[in-house]
Amino acid sequence: MKIKDIVNRDIVNLTNCEQEPIHIPGSIQPHGFLLGLQQDTLVIDYCSANSAEYINLFHSELLGKSFESVFGVDATQKLKDYVANELMLSSSLLKLTLAGVDFLCTLHNSGGIYILEAEPESMQHKQASEVYDQTAQFLAYMHDTHTLKELCQLITKGTRDITGYDRVMVYRFDKDYNGEVFAECCREDLEPFLGLHYPHTDIPPQARELYMRNLLRLITDIDYTPVPIYTIDNAEGKNLDLSLAILRSTSPIHVQYLHNMGVGATLTISLIYKKKLWGLIACHHYSPKNLSPEVRLAAQLQGHFITSQIDLRQASEEYELARKTTQALESMNGYGLNRESDLQILADSHDILQLCNAAGVSISFNGQVYKCGLTPSDEEINQLGSWLATFSNNSSFHTDKLIDYFPEAKDMCSNTSGIIYHSLDVESGNCIIWYRPETHTEVNWAGDPTRAIIKDQKGLSPRNSFKLWKELLECISKPWLQPELNTASSYAYSLQRQINLLIISQEEERYRKLSELLHQTNSELENINWISTHDLQEPLRKIQLIASRILGKDEEMSNNVLDSIKRMNASANRMQTLLVDILKYTRLKHTDDSFEQVDLNRLFEEVKLDMAETIAEKSAIVLADNLPTVHGIPFLLKQLFANLIGNSIKYTEPGTNPQVKITPDHILTPYNADSTDLYQVIYVADNGIGFEQHFAESIFNIFTRLHSAPELKGSGVGLALCKKIMQNHDGYIKATSELGTGTVMSLYFPVKT
């Protein structure tokens, strides 16, 4: 049988320490020995090299043998019962007699291997009753504390009383895992570490990850010599995960770090809050020191106490803060926003600052800035708001150190180191911003954090100077707490709704004023129209009457005079026709006649009868082909078809008999490709002079005439009138034509369901 050790011999320094596999060192500390048993057979597959120091059996004598064959039936049965009762997951210790020696053991499963760690029971330790009394006393004291800091201070005293370490600290991490000594109890002759900060590099990420898995870590003697672990060499790369092992050997980098601090022994207990490493109970002794397993468990219980209380105490503090901010939120929601000037009233309210315990606030709306308290200038607010809108994509943003994101804010950080920003829309730049001023903070570091790594003749190594080093933090505000962020967000949402209502109200007011102006303008236009269509009729009639009388006299007149009088009479007639058409057009939009089902065949016959004289005079042929019934106003439809037929007859080449054909489309069709509504289409086609197709839209504009020949009389109102009639019927009219080939007018009547 071939045996090998599994010691990790990779060279570790500060250039690669963050990748150091500290969970598989392949060695242990010497204050106990380790066995690795195969889960199914309990065959000893791993053994530490120091087994003979405790049980007079070398690792070479143990490897490959079953646990029972070496230690007997009783020990094996106790081991199996311990596993069967799931005591591995509890704080109960396994007491075993191995080769005639009594041990207190811990047992856990690591990848199908039971790791048994044995420590001699005869080691000096406190009586269980003494540990219980100290723990009970601690619980009594704990109920008398009110703040988390007081509780942590009590933890350090209670832990030191139980363990006897020279120094006990509660070490708290910030968001970047820089550490702070939050509470401390130490020997009177020692220099206190309370309030000192340590850079995140002192505890690398993989170490923090291990603290999350293994809640208790013990080093009994910093100067220990690691004990290698041996195994049967029957697989390539064979190794053993010691993440949960009490005896696991420590990283040489960490050992050197502790040497530099002058520490002789340590105990570390993890404090977990909301599934994150909140901090540590760190115990230091300045000479070698071991603890019995019972005392370790009692110390670990302190960690459980503080972990449970962190949530309770911080929740209580957050509740009180949330209660005050919510009260301010309820007060602010009681303010109404009826006009834009009310925004200054909101900004001046004391409660708007209490929402998130800010020192200043600004509301930007429609290019105006409404502000109160400690704020930047209006120009700086506009500049900041523009940047924040782009940076946050018109959403929200908060920070306690604005210059990390917006270096241009350096000049205004005295008032604006911390901000909470919420956009109030996605386009116009309206927003609300709360401000906190700069808080000058002096941080005491245990050594210069920028020199956490030093270079000497041995290469890179952890710092060996822990001399007090002070750093003044500038352009940073007091951090925003979650209840403050929540109420600020809630109010911003409420303000956004109020502003939207204000904008709607402003739009309604603007439309109301426009409507009044339009109504007034229409009234004035109606007055002008009345003058045009009535007051101007009388002078025209007089002109026509005088012209007729002159032309009816037998007196001889020169040709020039006679021609002038005829042209004057023709102009008066044209003007009268124009005034009549304008009157028809303006009256059209005011009709109150109700809609009804109109038989277009019957209506067509009435139009032909009314136009019989014109049709006969031009020898026109006007036909209709089985027209449908449509929903409309009879007299308007009659006027529509009369205008279209009249235009077709009027605009015909001289010497050509006009032909007008009115036919329906028997398939209901949409007006265009984008329309889903169906229409009944009726075509009015003629053989007239036509026009170029690019005029197809403009011919429906009022006063538009494409043909200026004097014999083609018209006011340019007729087709505009036709379009207006179709609009009144929720329909459309289109023209299709070419010069010399006639015109087709398409009438789209909506199908009423």
UniProtKB/TrEMBL annotation:
What domain of life is recorded for the organism? Bacteria
Q: Which GO terms describe its biological process?
A: detection of visible light; regulation of DNA-templated transcription
Reaction catalysed by this enzyme: ATP + protein L-histidine = ADP + protein N-phospho-L-histidine
Which ranges carry the Phytochrome chromophore attachment site domain? 147-304
Q: What is its EC number?
A: 2.7.13.3
Specify the Histidine kinase domain's residue ranges.
Answer: 531-753
Q: Which InterPro entries match?
A: GAF, GAF-like_dom_sf, HATPase_C_sf, HATPase_dom, His_kinase_dom, HisK_dim/P_sf, PAS-like_dom_sf, PAS_2
Q: Which UniProt keywords apply?
A: Chromophore, Kinase, Phosphoprotein, Photoreceptor protein, Receptor, Sensory transduction, Transferase
The name this protein goes by in its record: histidine kinase
Q: Which organism is it from?
A: Flavobacterium subsaxonicum WB 4.1-42 = DSM 21790
